[in-house]
């Protein structure tokens, strides 16, 4: 977003970051084996290629290095204000500005407020009886303590999600005993990873179009994965194949069966690893599927009463995935005192995961329903950035001060998405972090990513209300009347949403 603002000659912006540096996910996650599940030539900006990725799925430190270099290349650092956690954002209608407050008490005014606070950055700490009294070492995978030596230790890893399947195989050869606590198994498919040869890197650099061609190929290979998502019967057939792969990799029949999910592949995020399943053939690794009853000072007791001695607990329990928390866990107020905490009380909804009715000039990157399970999120972010820049231009063109998406447009958009959602593999009955309690999926985009790009290429201006400060009282009254009618349609929407949710459950 920052780079594209600069490219458009807009230099009057600042970035508020609560931590000490840029990088977000790839600054925080440095656990052994940490890597992206999307190929690096795809998980990088289209406008800032890197010809030197060491392998198809580069490790976290290469991605972080790439982000640092890109920050330097486009001279972004001077716009960053580190150690500034945003604690409130309130839109002032009279002056058409957002008033942003950080935890240090500094107040910033801005015309546009872009919420790029990341979909997976708040560690989820499980509420397990006794965890606080544990006398050994405890840390979350996103806060890995590299000073703590795991050699020869008895380690318990809680959770079997994207992070745990990456770090467990790396630490298993080092530790004395690794107990992997699993609540629900994930489908883990082979990772088509390999190193790039020197000749390939040279070709990427010197042969015009070669790297782009490679990127296109990766894009369309990934995009082909939407087929099973939109055709659950195809996904069911793939499940059979994946089941065979588990049995092939895990020698012990019982362990293999406990590692096999009982839901259709793709319903929860598919994970990729070549090392995870074979790890269970090691003598010092045990898969524990009995729930944790209690954590004692130096041990873990499971529901079957068995006690396991533990020196270190690693929480591979993932992240808070509710946009109502990760997008903002602070006061966010829009028009006429509307508060996003209230508006999103039952369900987080936006328009193309980018704008929200009632909150003018508030833009989101990876807002509700713009996440992905099959391709690079960078592709979606770039589409959103273009869209936001077009919105800014539209405001300038109309000599307006702010624009707000219409309630009706947002309603129609979300009703359509939830209808599509019903035909996907995500609605085949599993409980995943894509869905909230009532079955509504507020996390992922239910179409191909190129459709998101196409649909956000131009703004549908009729879906927005443009406001100019200093409008006559009559015009303001008109707008007020519009908002009243929008509120009514919102009430209608709530009713319809309840119906959709009932159908889904
Ligand atoms: C282990 C892991 C693996 C992943 N693998 C993949 C993958 O394979 N493919 C994929 O597409 N995605 C993956 N993701 C998702 C990943 O989050 C996104 O790909 C991408 O990093 C999002 O970038 P971002 O800048 O939007 O968010 P982030 O990288 O999360 O950055 C958000 C930034 O906002 C800051 N921030 C948050 N709240 C505030 C506040 N109130 N005030 C000030 N600053 C704030 C944070 O400190 C952070 O620096 C993965 C995530 C994790 C954690």
Automatic annotation (TrEMBL):
Position of the signal peptide: none
Is the keyword Hydrolase in the record?
Answer: no
Q: Which residue intervals are annotated with compositional bias (Basic and acidic residues) in the record?
A: 475-498
Keyword terms, alphabetized: FAD, Flavoprotein, Oxidoreductase
Q: Which InterPro entries match?
A: FAD-bind_Monooxygenase_sf, FAD/NAD-bd_sf, Flavin_mOase-like
Superkingdom, according to UniProt?
Bacteria
Region (Disordered) residue ranges read: 475-505
Pfam families listed in its UniProt record: FMO-like
What name goes with this protein? NAD(P)/FAD-dependent oxidoreductase
């Amino acid at each position: 977003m920052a780079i594209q603002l600069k490219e458009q000659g807009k230099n009057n912006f600042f970035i508020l970051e609560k931590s000490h540096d840029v990088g977000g996910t790839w600054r925080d996650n440095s656990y052994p084996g940490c890597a992206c599940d999307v190929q690096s030539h795809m998980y990088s900006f289209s406008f800032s290629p890197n010809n030197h990725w060491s392998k198809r799925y580069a490790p976290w430190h290469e991605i972080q290095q790439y982000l640092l270099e890109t920050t330097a290349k486009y001279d972004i650092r001077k716009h960053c204000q580190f150690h500034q956690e945003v604690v409130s954002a309130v839109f002032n209608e009279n002056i058409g500005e957002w008033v942003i407050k950080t935890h240090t008490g500094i107040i910033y005014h801005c015309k546009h407020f872009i919420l790029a606070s990341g979909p997976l950055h708040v560690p989820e700490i499980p509420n397990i009886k006794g965890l606080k009294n544990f006398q050994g070492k405890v840390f979350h995978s996103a806060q890995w303590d590299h000073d703590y030596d795991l050699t020869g230790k008895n380690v318990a890893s809680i959770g079997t999600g994207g992070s745990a399947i990456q770090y467990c195989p790396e630490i298993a050869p080092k530790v004395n005993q690794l107990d992997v606590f699993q609540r629900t198994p994930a489908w883990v498919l082979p990772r088509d990873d390999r190193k790039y040869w020197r000749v390939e890197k040279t070709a990427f650099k010197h042969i015009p179009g070669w790297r782009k061609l490679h990127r296109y190929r990766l894009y369309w290979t990934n995009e082909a994965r939407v087929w099973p998502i939109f055709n659950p019967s195809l996904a069911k057939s793939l499940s059979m194949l994946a089941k065979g792969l588990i049995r092939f990799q895990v020698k012990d029949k019982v362990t293999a069966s406990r590692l096999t999910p009982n839901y259709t592949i793709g319903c929860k995020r598919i994970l990729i690893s070549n090392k995870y399943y074979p790890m269970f053939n090691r003598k010092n690794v045990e898969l524990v599927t009995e729930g944790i009853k209690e954590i004692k000072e130096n041990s873990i007791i499971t529901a079957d009463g068995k006690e396991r001695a533990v020196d270190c607990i690693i929480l591979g329990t993932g992240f808070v995935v509710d946009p109502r928390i990760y997008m903002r866990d602070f006061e966010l107020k829009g028009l006429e005192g509307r508060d996003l905490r209230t508006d999103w009380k039952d369900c987080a909804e936006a328009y193309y995961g980018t704008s929200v009715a009632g909150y003018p000039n508030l833009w989101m990157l990876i807002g509700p329903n713009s996440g992905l399970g099959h391709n690079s999120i960078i592709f979606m972010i770039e589409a959103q950035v273009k869209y936001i820049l077009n919105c800014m231009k539209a405001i300038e063109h109309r000599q307006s001060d702010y624009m707000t998406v219409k309630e009706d447009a947002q309603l129609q958009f979300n009703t359509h998405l939830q209808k599509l959602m019903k035909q996907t593999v995500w609605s085949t009955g599993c409980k995943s972090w894509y869905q909230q309690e009532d079955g509504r999926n507020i996390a992922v985009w239910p179409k191909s990513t190129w459709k998101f790009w196409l649909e956000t290429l131009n703004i549908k201006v009729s879906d927005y209300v443009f406001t100019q400060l200093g409008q006559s009282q009559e015009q303001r009254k008109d707008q007020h009347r519009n908002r009243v009618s929008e509120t009514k349609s919102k009430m209608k929407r709530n009713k319809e949403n309840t119906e959709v949710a009932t159908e889904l459950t």
